[in-house]
Amino acid sequence: MVPFTASSDANAVYTAYRIVQEIATFLRASEEDAELKVFYADLRAYCVIIRGHWGRINKGAVEINRQLHIRLLEQLDYIVAPDVFTTLQVPTLNEKLGGKLRTLSWYWDEARKKNDTIVKLEIIRSCLEFGGTPEARDEFIRSLATSEEEIRKIYPEDPEKWITEDITSRRTIREPPYAVRTAAQSVFNALTACKGCLCNPMHDFSARICLGTYRKPDPGPHANVNEELDFDLFLSMIGEWHEARVHTEREEVVQFVVGDGGSQSRFGKRDRVMKPMKVKRLCEPIAKIKTMAAYRLDFKVIRNQLFKLQSQKSNVLFNTTMNPISLQQILEEGPRSFTERARRILAVILSSSALHFFDTPWLQPIWSSANILFFRTASGTIPLRPFIQTQLSGLEHGHFSNHSSDRTVPVGSNGDETDSDSGGPDDIDPDDLVSHQCPTLISLAVMLMEVYFATPFKILARRYGVEVGNTEFSSCTRHIDTNLVFEACKGEIPEKFLYAIHNCLEPTIWEDLEGNKLAAEILRIRIYEEVVRPLETELIKAYSSISIDDLDRLAQSLDFTSWDQAIQPWNDQVQAVHGTVRTSSPFSRPSTSNQLEYNSPVKSSLQSHLQYHELLGQGHSPPPPRAHSPLRNGLPLTAHTMFKCQSYLDWKSKYQEVYDKYIPAQLGTCCPVPVKIAILDTGLDLTHPDVEARTKNIKGKYNWLQEKFRQSVHDRNGHGTFTANLILDYAPDAELYVAKIAENKPSSPKTVAEAINYAVSEWKVDIISMSFGFPTRDIEGYVDLERALANAYANKVLLFAAASNNGGQLGRSFPARDHTVIAVHATDANGNRSSFRPTAIDDDISIGTIGEAVESA
Question: What's the number of domains the chain is made of?
Answer without folding.
Answer: 2
